[in-house]
Design a protein that fits this description.
By secondary structure, the chain is α/β, with parallel strands linked by helices. The chain has 2 domains: 140 residues, no CATH class; 314 residues, TIM Barrel. Helix content is 26%, strand content 19%. A 7-stranded parallel sheet has the order 13-15-16-17-18-19-20. Helix 3 runs antiparallel to helix 4. The longest helix has 21 residues. The N terminus is likely disordered.
Length: 491
């Protein structure tokens, strides 16, 4: 199985919020470009720094996407060696080497053509570059072609003895989450901060200066906004997060009732969103509550699964830089029901699912359920799925909310949770995100029809103040002074 790599535009680094090992935001880490890996049915691999090349192999040659967290560099740097690609026109084998003698022998004795340097890696691992932590091995298989892996046990008895080749960085996460989250200055929280005075201004800053997902609800201007945001994010080497929330019959008459008129309109809307994103990168959270709320009859479920499958397949086929996660509730759904609903809704086209959107489930609880759901999907034939967790309001878990129509409805005892990061506590969790915009109302009737609460989605000053104060008291977020956010200089 031959391997092909090519150079792409550098990916941005994730701004991690914890200490420990060097992160990709550390300038000492030069291996900051993601390697994409796809495989043919025969097992032949294509590993490339170009997401477009990988996407073309999937679309045109019917390769399947494989998980890969290797990262290399397209530019030289201290402790890095030039890796040459050599192609054999007779056997169609591709060889990668940092050894000048091996390169010379391949060309002069075996008829290889030297394509020159295609990326840079480390030949000494952590000693030379302290983020080079994955050693890539090669061995010759029964097809007489070199196979590459970071795990020697992958080669099996029929291969020759694996030999070390070079070191790369193993980010441990999907490439799209190896970039800083995009800061959107159009949120209600940021607007409230800009107009506020007095002590409350700092409360609002701590919310509004944190990257928050952008909700799209079926408006005529959504596609234009998506294009503008993704272009700005691409220019700042960051990744925006969108929530698609326009499915027909949304919220089934609840506080967030609405959505587009019918499935045909929904599909047309999805097409415009897809065109707005283009080949730029984005994280998409698909239809919160669509499988976990009011999905109680066969006709509703059939229509919804058709709509979500269309959305997932469109983004998968037409937007190679998009990772899609379908909301799978908040750790309270029956596991078999959630598995079947995800499968029916096109999970095969998605990176995975989202947990806890707009809810208050503790992160550890959501991750435990997420792990079980990943395992259930794998057992059903859908391996390698991952999930994200909405931590926007789960800093103290499910706090008591007397008189509320449901626990997370304008809960003044709740707290902001961990700010967005891919430095998660669970290897199957791609990231913690602020998906539900904290400080926005859940509805005007959360505590009864006469309660003085804003309509769903409107800014709720007292709720925002309480979420922030409770988080500071619980120690779940850093209490920023105005100007301390690392994100607000992006725009």
């Amino acid at each position: 199985m031959s391997v092909l790599l090519a150079v792409s535009v550098a990916a941005a680094a994730l701004v991690t919020l914890r200490g420990g090992a060097p992160s990709l935001s550390d300038p000492s880490c030069l291996l900051d470009e993601p390697l994409h890996r796809v495989a043919a049915a025969s097992g032949q691999q294509l590993i490339t720094l170009s997401k477009n090349e990988a996407a073309n192999a999937v679309d045109r040659l019917k390769y399947s996407t494989q998980s890969s967290s290797w990262q290399a560099a397209s530019q030289p740097g201290a402790g890095l060696a030039a890796v040459h690609r050599l192609y054999n026109p007779g056997s169609h084998d591709i060889l990668y080497s940092t050894s000048s003698s091996e390169i010379s022998n391949a060309v002069t004795q075996y008829g290889y053509v030297d394509d020159g340097t295609v990326f840079y890696a480390s030949v000494a691992g952590d000693e030379a570059n302290d983020c080079a932590n994955a050693l890539v091995y090669a061995a010759v298989g029964p097809d007489r072609v070199r196979h590459y892996s970071d795990d020697p046990s992958d080669f099996g008895a029929s291969f020759g003895t694996p030999s070390p080749q070079f070191w790369v960085h193993d980010a441990g996460k999907s490439h799209i989450l190896a970039a800083a989250p995009y800061f959107y200055n159009g949120t209600a929280a940021w607007r409230a901060y800009q107009s506020a005075t007095g002590d409350v201004r700092r409360d609002y800053y701590n919310i509004g200066a944190t990257p928050i997902s952008i909700w799209l609800s079926g408006n005529a201007t959504d596609a234009e906004n998506v294009e503008r945001v993704t272009m700005a994010a691409n220019a700042s080497k960051t990744v925006p997060q969108f929530v698609l929330y326009a499915i027909p019959g949304r919220d089934c008459g609840g506080f967030s009732r609405g959505g587009v008129a019918d499935i045909g309109t929904y599909e047309q809307w999805i097409d415009t969103i897809s065109r707005g994103i283009g080949d730029r990168e984005a994280i998409v959270i698909l239809e919160p509550d669509a499988i976990s709320f009011c999905d109680n009859n066969a006709q509703t479920r059939a229509l919804r699964t058709e709509a979500m499958t269309y959305a997932a397949q469109t983004l998968h086929d037409d937007n190679p830089g998009v990772y899609t996660y379908l909301h799978a509730g908040s750790g309270t759904l029956d596991l078999d029901y959630a598995r079947d609903a995800l499968i029916d809704s096109g999970i095969r086209y998605m990176r995975g699912f989202a947990m806890n959107v707009a809810s208050h489930g503790p992160t550890q609880t959501e991750e435990a359920y997420g792990d079980d759901l990943v395992a259930a999907l794998s057992a059903a034939g859908y391996p390698d799925k991952r999930y994200v967790v909405d931590t926007s309001r789960n800093g103290v878990g499910r706090a008591s909310n007397p008189g509320a129509s449901y626990n997370s409805c304008n809960n003044h005892g709740a707290a902001l949770g961990a700010r967005p990061t891919s430095d998660t506590d669970d290897r199957l969790a791609d990231a913690y995100l602020w998906i539900k915009p904290p400080g926005e109302s859940d509805g005007s009737g959360c505590h009864g029809p006469t309660s003085p609460e804003p309509n769903a989605g409107a800014w709720f000053p007292q709720l925002a103040h309480d979420l922030f104060d409770n988080a500071v008291d619980a120690g779940t977020i850093a209490d920023w002074q105005i100007g301390e956010s690392p994100y607000t200089d992006q725009t």
